[in-house]
Amino acid sequence: MLLNLWNLHNSHHQTTELFLHISQHLANPPPFSVYTVSEKKTKKNQKNIVYQNFSFFFTQVFNDPIHGHIELDSLLVKIIDTPEFQRLRNIKQLGGSYYVFPGASHNRFEHSIGVAYLAGELATALMVKQPDLNINDRDVLCVQIAGLCHDLGHGPFSRLFDRMFNPEADPATKDWKDASIAMFNHLLENEDNKVKEEEDYELLLPEDLIFIKEMIKPIKSDDTKVLWPYKGRDENKSFLYEIVSNNQNGIDVDKFDCLARDCHHLGIRNNFDHHRFIMFARVCDVNGRKHICSRDKEVSNLHDMFHTWVSLHKKAYQHRVTQSVEMMIKDALLEANKRINIVGSGGNTFHLSTAKTDMKAYTKLTDQVVEEISKSTNADLEKAKGILKRITTRDLYWFVGQAKPVSKVVNLDYGMKDKDLINKIYFYNKKNLKKAFPILESETALAFLRVYLKEPKTKTAKDKAKKCFREWCKENDFEVLLYFYLIALIDINFSVRTNLLYCNIIAIKKVTYKTLPAEIVA
């Protein structure tokens, strides 16, 4: 009888009833379990989740150091067990930070599983608390798949490849989220994976696939104000697009897992409690559209989230040694770019910068490329190998100094360009669960410039670089700083490349720097 259960293709409710019936007749049910959710009223008329444990053979349990034991649907497991997803095991979550923080060895693989789990938790919490939202099992499963696959498009060392290497190697390159969608398509189309067997699941194709891809890369919030732009779900379920990647205010489960996981591995305190956010999350009407809102008393918890996020950038992500290492890895990849051939579809070969155009080739591109360069006997890769050897011997690009513009100030937006993010968050009060309101607040920050000396690093060269840096700062109205770990990079030839403060965390109007005179580097 149990063997025949594997061949059943009943609906969710039919399967649930069957397993409940079987579990009642089994003295010792199997170890794997899933939960059905029902509601009951407490004395205070508060809804509690009641879990009924019963035998289930189509889930898998993952023991995650951040979220504990989590159970994922069989379709998610099927996606995980593909080469396209397993590739994420070899892509560092924090790029070059591992060369500075010994604990930062975690990868995109476990982060993606964590995001899928949290996406399901938030969607299910809303479904239980607000049945009138008509969230169904398909919605929850689609949100989980989007969370699981949202980072499929990252290149080696994550944002190092996407934001440092690609812009120089191929300025016309697409966003890594486009690559995530392309990799997701490739995963589904790969016949060896056998994922696209819709008769085994309750997904409706192509509607649900469109919905999943729209959640992986949502449309910019400015483009959604008038007409509803999405096709996967109607406007009455607009809040579902805010769970995985929230373009409205930047508060999403992707950030929740990043904060918890990165703090854990970096040894930095995480003051944000995502469990509380999920507990108090509620969908309210805001200007005619449904958005995920938080309880008014959760303002301080959200401030903790933003402050922890900024603290991670100051202490870890933008650590000056991390940036030095990442610049060197980027330079090594640029040197090796057109000297490495990756076999893709139809036997065609691609370079590092073009592999993203062919997902079969891109599947083979991970952090391992650095080891392959280091061990290569190809004479054309000697310069790239030399740069990587300097990293292993700790002969890093030397930090000259950093400065901030005296009069240039910008608004903190924690990820939302040209907006004050706190103004985009809506809250509700327990006396009126349907009415949402903003809490206005403004903060400011400064853009910083950071300079590194590649070579030579003799005392004369260092002194000259420092002198030139101070002269340039004086001429361009910059205040020289000593120990602030912020950004903007200049090579020894002083051709300026601008990075934004906290990367995408702070929206900065780019300052037009004057090209430094040639005699500075003479």
TrEMBL record:
Domain HD: from-to ranges: 108-259
SUPFAM superfamilies per the UniProt record, alphabetical: HD-domain/PDEase-like
The family database entries (CDD domains) matched by this protein are listed as:
HDc (cd00077)
A GO molecular function annotation here is: dGTPase activity
Of the GO CC terms on this record, one is:
nucleus
**What superkingdom does the record give?**
Eukaryota
Gene3D superfamilies reported for this sequence: 3.30.70.2760, Hypothetical protein af1432
- Transmembrane segments in this chain: where? none
GO biological process terms, semicolon-separated: defense response to virus; dGTP catabolic process; regulation of innate immune response
**Family note:** Belongs to the SAMHD1 family.
Q: What is this protein called?
A: Deoxynucleoside triphosphate triphosphohydrolase SAMHD1-like
State the organism named in the record: Haplochromis burtoni (Burton's mouthbrooder)
